[in-house]
Amino acid sequence: MPALIVCPHCAQNLKCDRPPAAGQRFCCPHCKAIFAVRGTTAPSTPPKSVPPRRTARQPAPRRSTPPPPRARNRFLPGMILGGLGVMVCMTLGFIGYLRYLGPQSNSDASTPAERVVETDPNPPSNSEPAKGDDAPSDRTATNDSKKDDPLHYLVLPPVKNEPIPAQTVQAPPPPLPPEHQTKVDAAIRRGVEFLKAKQAMNGGWNDDYHPAGLTALPALTLLECGVSAEAPHIDKAFLQAKKTSAVLQSTYEIALIILFLDRLGNPDDKPLIRSLALRLLAGQTQAGGWSYQCPFVLTKQEGNLLTVLDALRPASHEELLVKDAPDAPLPPPPEKGDGAMNGSSGKRPEDLDGKAKAAYAALTPALKRIPSLLPPSDSHQLPLADHSDNSNTQFAALALWAAGRHGVPVERALALTAARFRFCQSINGGWDYPYEVPSHTSTASMTCAGLLGLGLGHGLIVRHPSHPTHSAMVDDAAIRRGMKALAGFVGEPGEYADKKDRPYVNLYYLWSLGRVGLLYRTDKIDGKDWYAWGVNRVLAWQEADGSWKANIYADATPIVNTCFALLFLKRSHLTEDVSKAVNFDLEGKKVRE
Fold it and tell me: Measured between alpha carbons, how far is residue 448 from residues 385, 432, 479 in Å?
């Protein structure tokens, strides 16, 4: 006589040909869980009380015992088809992975980053043994020699197992009043706990929507909020980020992984940082910006491209100077021997010789056309429009600045990006999302992106080895105009006292605003305290679980919102080395030292 049983995991009614015996095991066709009948007979009707479903943080029950023959045979065709589908997907993924890696000369390499070093057809003449070779264990002398040299990140060193100097978060004075700072600290703790609780078992925060970016951004946020690099949450995120980076093409995600690895400070990650940075360099447009996708750079091409970029490094900081106006003529190059030019002003790929010439000849046609291989006299002749946008561009610029600390030749690319933002500045002084000239509109977050690009351009000039002082006082009219426009998007700290009257907060903009305020070392923008105003708005929208959900920018999610809010509250500073070297005159008088 047929009987009904109920799956204790998904509460589905299951039909049975005969009353089951006590202890008999079944495999549920809906949730695939295996369970045993507890009573002597199955009830004829389902129970009214449904067992609680398994939460997301509880592990799935282990299937240590195979299902009964009847249950297994019933779904055998579906299992076979599903297995074939998995095999096809794994085969296609493996083929794509091999295509990315290229031919390998050493089968013992365990990561794509190590293979970049081992398969470089033109390794630097002074390269040291890679990981796994007989590298010296005592690196004290090497670290001490570079500790006092603030310019070593502009030199292309071989991959060394030396610690990467970790960036510190230095909040500018004056601090908040004690009662306000207490609220900020409590909000940061709650937000950190929310991110920790939402991390998946694989180390990421989302499997479907930008899995690499939604691994790197929360992990970077946790590091900036004081979580140790050795913490389990960071360790799991690192493994997930490294796994997803092998075939990554998204500009946002590539940039976020570089920023995460740079902040993490593991010297073994330098090859991976360089590999990802080369994809960004290959994805830069003729307008000095980036769109959503970057091309792959095969492993066998990475060494060639790195060799050519190193040979084309600007010999003088004067090669990086941007014209004051789009139609102004370029200054004539200095004579040989003048300053630190060394006769290489405006060198082109066709002028290379020896090893660099052979490396350039081996590049693919697409890589030969990337803008950072051209001298500024050619690359800075910008088009009036292209498909790049200023949002992707600011993420790529931040990542390339970080990659420059690890030996990647990024000077020409970032100089072109600075020229882009100077060229496409809106008539009202701000910047808009698309790249187009002339522009008549601007947005808050993109105005911050433009100011970031101009600031990094000055940082390039000051930090170049040929610069006489490696510090400067900068009076830039374009920056002052941008700051004036940005002030229009900043309110007063006391406005919207009633939460119901407050508009939704744009946390992407506030994170960008915080980076601009820290980069330019200013507490007030046109007399407005940007941090106090932002804190007032951010704290008002924190949810009971520690997250932030009320936002008005595209692709906002609670995870992304929470990251941006925490980075703003913590005053995360990703370009502190620029702030220490450059003083920006924002109001016609010297800013605070």
Answer: 20, 10, 11
